[in-house]
């Protein structure tokens, strides 16, 4: 870079948001980089992030944040534009509008990339397990859409999905970007809440939501319109008449709760019935990417009561040492 560009952080930024204007903004001092903080983060992350940076760097030019607050960055640039005597009033108004949009969108992208870096920093994986051929088209579309995401709870999902794309590229459906783009914070929170009511047995997991117990779920914030919104978003599917059945060879599920193993055997030859809600492929991907909260204490009591009193199940329980 030229003398006036020295000290400006490469390698991450957003050409799609207006390359010339961004470079002008750099000259005006609107952006800066906490190099020590960034280098410390990368050094702790090791091979995972050092693989991530060059790939993501094809789509954004730098990883720094606007200097000071977003408002301070905007005010500084607006002042520079207003002092430019070569611009007409209309050109000044257009430039100010574009500056505000670029800073806001860049900040959104930065926040999401930062979440992904922190997620990858926590992964203990050798370099050969990280995909260096992650689809460029997918990442390009992802970053373009990420520019419009400002709600922190939704940004968290975007960042985790971006990290997951590098760790398990085949597990991320192509429709994931479109689905994430439709989520507002209310739907994101509804999905996070639903994920508290997931039953797991090793790699097998599914939401355990029973329509006949709808009052229990309503008391925990899972309302019918939330489920409709999650269906519309493409994260779950529902069948309130017959319900869903998990095909299993032995039709036996083992669930660990409170230092006990519960073995649930299905009397249904088709498999193990697991309620009226099922994750879609995108829902499964998002569930694996996020960190769900623990289930409420009375969820286990409700499950045990249901399994005991339903003829489709046989329930046994045994003590075990805590893992």
What does this molecule look like?
This protein is an alpha+beta fold and 323 residues long. It is built from 13 helices and 11 strands. The strands form 5 sheets. It has a 3-stranded antiparallel sheet with strand order 7-8-11, with helices on one face. A two-stranded antiparallel sheet has the order 1-2. The N terminus is likely disordered.
The percentage helix is 40-55%
Number of helices: 13
Residue-averaged pLDDT: 75
What percentage of amino acids are in beta strands?
A: 5-15%
Shape: elongated
Distance between the termini: 54 Å
> How much is the radius of gyration in Å?
24 Å
Largest sheet: 3 strands, antiparallel
Order of strands across the main sheet: 7-8-11
Unreliable stretches: 1-35, 62-67
Which H/E pattern describes the elements?
HEHHEHHHHHHEEHHEEEEEEHHE
Count of β-strands: 11
Structural class of the helix and strand makeup?
Answer: alpha+beta
Short description:
The protein has helices spanning 19-27, 35-45, 47-56, 70-82, 89-121, 136-146, 152-167, 176-182, 185-194, 214-219, 224-233, 281-289, 297-309; strands at residues 31-32, 65-66, 198-201, 204-207, 236-238, 245-246, 252-257, 260-266, 272-273, 277-279, 313-319.
